[in-house]
Amino acid sequence: MLGGEDPPVYVNNSEDAEFPPFPPDEIVKRALSKRGKSKYSLTSYNCESFVNLCRCGVEFSRQVKDAAATVETVGSVAAAGAVSFFVSR
């Protein structure tokens, strides 16, 4: 958490060991070079994807990956429930 912020601001650098960040001036240069070239998509290229691309050169979003895994799990549970329902009749 950064001090003195209201509300508090948290910094998540959990990916730095796997994907080392560029120096700050390079990150800014990379971000500015993307201006007007948006391909935003909630499910494939969100703000986290953009930040990671600028920050470490790798386009990825843990949010999207985690959401997809949740949807897959819920779908599997629903399918199993439907099969169980119809088999028990």
Q: How does this model look, in words?
A:
- The chain has one domain (24-87).
- α1 crosses α2.
- It has helices spanning 24-33, 47-56, 62-87.
- Helices cover 52% and strands 0% of the residues.
- With 89 residues, it is mostly helical.
- The chain has three helices and no strands.
Précis, in short:
The chain has 89 residues and is mostly helical. It is built from three helices and no strands.
List keywords for this structure.
89 residues, mainly alpha, 3 helices, 52% helix, 0% strand, elongated, transferase, LRAT_dom
Q: Count of helices? A: 3
Distance from first to last alpha carbon: 55 Å
**Could you list the spans in which at least 5 consecutive residues all have pLDDT below 50?**
none
* Largest sheet, strands/sense/barrel: none
Q: Structural class, judged by helices and strands?
A: mainly alpha
Q: Oligomer, anyone?
A: single chain
Domain LRAT: 1-63
Keywords: Hydrolase, Lipid metabolism, Transferase
Protein name: Group XVI phospholipase A2-like protein
GO cellular component, one term: cytoplasm
Task: Furnish the topology, listing elements before pairings.
Blueprint: H1 24-33, H2 47-56, H3 62-87
Helix pairs in contact: 1-2
GO molecular function, one term: phospholipase A2 activity
Keywords: Hydrolase, Lipid metabolism, Transferase
Pfam families: LRAT
